[in-house]
């Protein structure tokens, strides 16, 4: 058991694993100011990466993150990529922009952080996909697959002979316990009366974990590893749709009680699990794919059995391809 836990802070991990940050390239989705994506990016700046690629919907929401990074180290190459990841075309265009940029030879870590939480029933305008599934999983599924040429290490190895590995980190949630994959009606179009904010959120968060499992099955032997995680309970703009009634419904589904003992984390504590997943080489020697409080776990308090099913992980890949209309 490592020394990391609930109280661990992101910056401390960056300093501890500074050799895994310095000179490397990280891509992070959803790094809007005040969220854990932004806190992750700013924490990584303390390790002096070569490049931070920030993928978000609007520059004005990301600019404070860019300014904070440059206040730490003005030499970091910060690239803002405009993309609404609930739009499949937005994900494809963002990936193409990165692939076409010759100044970005490779990506060492992709952190799929963006999400929508517990919103009213909404279908995306372009693809008619349920919004939480589109923004939280399908957009990242497309983005990640299109970025594989810059994520996967070259079979011939780098010119200097130093082995390179890469990671895809999927920010999930204990909310995976609120509901599994609706294989036959993922967008609630057949049964819109069955829509609930947290059933849809649970589906998206379950998909995050299954996506990591299948990425490992397909690409671990080629030097690409993936982990998913619960960052903790943190007050951010993600909770803008949350009401007391929704809280009661969600806590009953997830914890089996309407009065769970949930301790809040600071933003620094909230980004720590993401950063350990992104950096710690020891994880490759440990069993598991899902982290909570910076530790790998299969505790059903935090992760549902349906989110760890390897056969469902393989099924999810083909199911996702059908929904996005593209085979990878």
From TrEMBL:
Xref: InterPro entries: NAD(P)-bd_dom_sf, SDR_fam
Domain of life: Eukaryota
Pfam families in alphabetical order: adh_short (PF00106)
UniProt xrefs under SUPFAM superfamilies: NAD(P)-binding Rossmann-fold domains (SSF51735)
GO terms, molecular function: oxidoreductase activity
UniProt keyword annotations, A-Z: Oxidoreductase
Record keyword Oxidoreductase present: yes
Gene3D superfamilies: NAD(P)-binding Rossmann-like Domain
Family: Belongs to the short-chain dehydrogenases/reductases (SDR) family.
Name of the protein described by the UniProt record: Short-chain dehydrogenase
């Amino acid at each position: 058991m490592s020394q990391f836990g609930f109280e661990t802070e992101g910056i401390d991990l960056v300093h501890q694993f500074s050799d895994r940050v310095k000179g490397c390239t990280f891509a992070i989705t959803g790094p809007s100011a005040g969220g854990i994506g932004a806190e992750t990016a700013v924490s990584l700046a303390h390790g002096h990466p070569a490049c931070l690629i920030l993928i978000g919907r609007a520059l004005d929401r990301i600019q404070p993150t860019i300014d904070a990074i440059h206040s730490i180290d003005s030499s970091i190459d910060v690239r803002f990529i405009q993309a609404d990841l609930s739009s499949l075309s937005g994900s494809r265009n963002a990936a193409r922009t990165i692939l076409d940029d010759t100044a970005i030879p490779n990506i060492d870590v992709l952190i799929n952080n963006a999400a929508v939480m517990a919103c009213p029933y909404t279908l995306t305008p372009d693809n008619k996909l349920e919004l939480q599934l589109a923004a939280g999983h399908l957009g990242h599924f497309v983005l990640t697959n299109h970025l594989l040429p810059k994520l996967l290490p070259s079979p011939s190895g780098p010119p200097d002979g130093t082995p390179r590995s890469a990671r895809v980190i999927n920010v999930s949630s204990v909310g995976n316990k609120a509901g599994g994959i609706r294989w036959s009606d993922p967008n609630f179009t057949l049964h819109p009366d069955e829509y609930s904010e947290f059933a849809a959120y649970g589906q998206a968060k379950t998909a995050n974990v299954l996506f990591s499992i299948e990425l490992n099955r397909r690409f671990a032997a080629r030097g690409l590893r993936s982990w998913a995680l619960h960052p903790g309970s943190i007050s951010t703009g993600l909770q803008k749709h949350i009401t007391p009634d929704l809280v009661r419904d969600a806590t009953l589904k997830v914890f089996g009680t309407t009065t769970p003992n949930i301790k809040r984390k600071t933003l620094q504590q909230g980004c720590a699990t993401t950063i350990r997943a992104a950096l710690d080489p020891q994880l490759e020697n440990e069993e598991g794919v899902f982290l909570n409080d910076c530790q790998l776990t299969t505790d059903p308090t935090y992760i549902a059995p349906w989110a760890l099913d390897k056969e469902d992980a393989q099924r999810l890949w083909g199911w996702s391809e059908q929904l996005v209309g593209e085979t990878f």
